[in-house]
Amino acid sequence: MRPLEARGYRTIVYGSVARGDVSKSSDVDVFIPYVVTSAMIETTLFESSIKPQQRRLVQATPSYAVKAYLDIDDLTSVSFPLIKMRPEELDFYRLAGELSYLQVQEGRRVPGINKQLMLVIPTDSGHREFSVVERLEEAALILRVNAEALRKRTHVLLRRREIGKTGVFKSIVLSGEKNFEEVLRQLEAENPAVRRRIKSDR
After folding, report:
1. What is the pLDDT of residues 91-137, one digit of tens each?
2. Which of 32, 34, 113, 184 is a good FRET partner for 65, with 20 to 30 A between their CA atoms?
């Protein structure tokens, strides 16, 4: 996060790192929550000797924002949207638990929902947790979100788990000479679902 913030890019880290329920196998997911030029991000990281092992363009569902992923190693990634994200899409990061760069420096932790739909609440000596499904109203109050929005998000995650799908509609690994914006334009030309999503946000 440090080199990106030094260049003026606002970053967050989300998930278990933000909540504090980490293990050796936990992912470190850094996210820039707005559209940026991919070449500038890659150059900024490269200048700090951070070179991704893999570059991926990902769209979770046909109606979801297209994002770029720079996989630094097996556990670490930097991602950012290639088209404007909707408020409900950005809510995902808040629900999972997110920290700004300053909050990371301060050693903060925040409540958030894990993949098992447990609300993880940091404490001075670790954390406590309870099922969001069983205590949704209470979880909404702690997360400071609308209960109905949380109910809808929980339903989607439960449904996804039941049918065993990852929810990834498109995942394209980029070769070295391609940039993300070129691949997005190609995808827009070829795929009606992507084209509709891009047009709806213009």
Report:
1. 889 999 999 999 999 999 999 999 899 999 999 989 999 999 999 99
2. 113
Enclosing domain of residue 124? 2-200
Q: What is the pLDDT of residues 48-101, one digit of tens each?
A: 999 999 999 999 888 889 999 999 999 999 999 999 999 888 988 999 999 999
What is the pTM (predicted TM-score) of this model? 0.91
In whole angstroms, give the CA distance from residue 188 to residue 129: 42
What is the signed CA dihedral for 126, 17, 138, 155, rounded to 10 degrees? -140
Average pLDDT in the 161-175 region? 75
Say how many domains are in the chain: 1
How many helices (DSSP H) and strands (DSSP E) are in the chain? 9, 10
The residues that bridge with 113 in the sheet, in sequence order, are 119
DSSP E strand stretches across 124-162? 126-131
Question: Phi and psi at residue 22, in whole multiples of 5°?
Answer: -95, 160
Distances (CA, A) of 191 to 62, 63, 69, 186: 9, 12, 20, 9
> What SS3 class is residue 56?
strand
Terminal C-alpha separation, the chain: 29
Rg of the chain over all Cα atoms, to the nearest angstrom: 17
